[in-house]
Write a structure and sequence with these properties.
The protein is mostly beta strands. It contains 2 helices and 41 strands. The chain has a 41-stranded antiparallel β-sheet that branches.
């Protein structure tokens, strides 16, 4: 048998054939695999005669990347258009799994156009994008896959859980879920507990982070809700996690807030009645508002830069505050918890038919005790003006419920002239304002009583008074001094040359109804070279102009003038006649010439004469000083 001959050339040809078959198999297998993951489209010819070429019906396509689903496509038809782009038509839906912070991005439209590399998808006709609970709708949307960004220059609407809105243009970024709306932006926020309550947010541009439920509005930004509103050049807002209510609002650039009270106050809640308002307005360069969770009430207000707040209350009452900074905290019922104002503070108030103005460096108020504290600053001292008085001090404590007031440190008080039917303020001359300095002061609003302590000094024109404790009853015009008193009164008899009365005593009581000043306890009166001492001194004021008309000293009266000393029980000082008449068994003593007794002794201050009169004698003894 002939042994077969091995032919190397034939073996090489068979090897090549097998290799080619294997390669063809791999190519076919790869082509089949790819055809399952991508829409089947024909090769684009250099010239396409018709718009639709090799249309594929009922497209359902899945694309993988690194073993994970990257894109899912559903459409009624698929073709390549004359523009060289791929067209999907008929209830088109594209899904990008987990692209938006773990949420699927779903694109829907009547038609979607994309390039070969799937770099962009342009949606036309009833276009929408859905990511979690956020849905964006427009006539045209374009999604860029690499940037994971959705854009449109057509009017757009969006919806999510309790938030919806519209704008002229929009940009959506999937990571993070960020929606940027431009031109005529309009948002609406509703609550599950009260769907009828709507918060409307408007502006020129909105930058909204969907996962945080927070956004920034620019350009004529505004928020409205049931008559209340907020306005500013820029507003940042954040909702609570459940998106039930606004959590906080930050406003900048001519910020303006108006809050209108809704509903009726509880008549049994005294704290709520005290804090109830009908309208509250706030203006500043910056404002921050924070709300209570699961509530429609405000938790805190912070304002900075030319702050102005006005609160209107029932019955036409109001409070206005101006400052460089305001910090206000409220309780859950909307009542005031604490207020702080700093930097050139001014507060104007109208309550109980009375108005008052408070100024200072800082102002604070705690709602529970209703005490308003005003302190001086570098540029302004604590000051209050109410009715016919004005008070300046290092610090002021004012009780709003009773209108009681306490002042401390470097106190200056001005009492202005009251109305004609009220008692005159001036117990010296009766005209002009009265000025008071003291270390401490308390004022009772119930009976309008002032109490001054420390080194107290009072003056009206040229008249002055000094004491350690003084009480003034404004309704009665009554004044009382204790712990020592010293007064200096200028007298101008018959419009001639003035002279001064200096009066000291332990106490002073001024009763305007009797038109008298009553001094008691070691009273001393100094007039020119004469000095009078007594237990009591009564000064009578004229009814016409409230000026001093006469003085009556009683009880162990003693008058000294140079070398003379006179003693008696009663002395009358007549300012018009410039005489002092001493009665009550008067005795006149000269240090060198002895003593003289009489029934009445008269000092003539104008010409230095002293006259002693006796009833039982034909003539009176007259002594003329030289």
């Amino acid at each position: 048998m002939k042994k077969p001959r091995i032919r190397p050339a034939l073996i090489f040809k068979v090897f090549i054939a097998l290799f080619m078959l294997g390669a063809i198999y791999l190519i076919v297998q790869n082509f089949v695999s790819r055809s399952r993951l991508k829409p089947k489209v024909p090769v684009v010819e250099s010239k396409i005669a018709e718009q639709k070429v090799e249309t594929t019906e009922k497209i359902q396509h899945f694309q993988l990347r690194k073993g994970k689903l990257h894109l899912e496509v559903r459409a009624a038809r698929h073709y390549i258009g004359q523009d060289g782009l791929y067209h999907l038509e008929g209830d088109v839906q594209l899904t990008f799994p987990g692209r938006a912070d773990g949420e699927d991005i779903v694109l829907e439209a009547r038609e979607i156009v994309h390039d070969r590399e799937n770099a962009f998808f342009r949606m036309l006709g009833a276009a929408s994008m859905k990511a979690g609970d956020l849905r964006v709708e427009s006539e045209s949307l374009e999604y860029q896959t690499e940037q994971e960004t959705l854009r449109t220059d057509f009017p757009v609407r969006f919806f999510s859980d309790r938030i919806s809105g519209s704008a002229k243009k929009a940009v959506y970024r999937a990571v993070p879920q960020r929606l940027i709306l431009r031109e005529e932006v309009d948002l609406r926020v509703t609550t599950a507990s009260d769907p009828s309550r709507i918060v409307q947010i408007q502006g020129d541009e909105l930058d909204y982070l969907h996962t945080r439920a927070a956004g920034t509005i620019r350009g004529d930004a505004r928020i409205d809700s049931e008559g209340s509103f907020a306005r500013a050049s820029l507003i940042r807002f954040e909702l609570f996690a459940d998106k039930e209510n606004l959590k906080s609002i930050f406003m900048q650039g001519d910020a303006h807030i108006v809050m209108v009270e809704q509903g009726e106050a509880d008549p049994e809640d005294t704290q709520q009645r005290a804090d109830r308002f009908e309208r509250r307005e706030l203006r500043a360069q910056k404002i921050v508002v924070r709300a209570w969770h699961s509530s429609q009430t405000i938790r805190s207000l912070e304002a900075e830069g030319k702050c102005y707040m006005r609160q209107e209350e029932p019955g036409g009452e109001f409070i206005e505050i101006e400052a460089e900074r305001l910090d206000i905290d409220f309780n859950r019922k909307g009542g005031l918890k604490e207020l702080q104002a700093k930097g050139r503070v001014t507060m104007a108030e109208q309550r109980g038919g009375e108005s008052r103005t408070v100024r200072g460096g800082t102002l604070s108020l705690k709602g529970r005790n209703q005490v308003l504290r005003v302190e001086s600053g570098d540029e302004s001292r604590a000051r209050i003006k109410a009715g016919d008085y004005e008070i300046e001090a290092d610090s002021l404590d004012i009780r709003l419920d009773s209108r009681n007031l306490t002042a401390a440190g470097g106190i200056n008080v001005i009492l202005t002239s009251p109305q004609a039917e009220k008692p005159a303020i001036g117990f010296f001359g009766g005209g002009g304002s009265v000025f008071i300095k003291a270390d401490d002061m308390r004022y009772s609003g119930e009976n309008r009583r002032f109490l001054f302590t420390g080194d107290v000094k009072v003056w009206q024109g040229k008249e002055t008074l000094m004491t350690q404790e003084m009480t003034i009853l404004r309704e009665l015009g009554r004044l009382t001094c204790s712990k020592g008193v010293e007064t200096h009164i200028t007298v101008n008899p018959k419009d001639e040359e003035e002279y001064e009365l200096e009066i000291t005593a332990e106490t002073l009581d001024y009763r305007p109804d009797d038109r008298q000043l009553n001094y008691t306890g070691e009273v001393t009166v100094k007039v020119e070279t004469a000095r009078l001492k007594a237990d009591r001194l009564n000064i009578h004021l004229s009814e016409k102009d409230n000026k001093i008309q006469s003085l009556l000293a009683q009880g162990e009266v003693r008058i000294t003038r140079e070398l003379y000393e006179a003693r008696g029980q009663e002395a009358v000082f007549d300012l018009e006649k410039e005489t002092i008449i001493l009665k009550g068994n008067p005795i006149l003593t000269h240090q060198q010439k002895g003593r003289v007794r009489g029934d009445k002794l008269t000092f003539y201050l104008a010409d230095d004469r002293i006259v002693v009169e006796n009833r039982g004698r034909e003539r009176s003894e007259t002594i003329i000083k030289k």
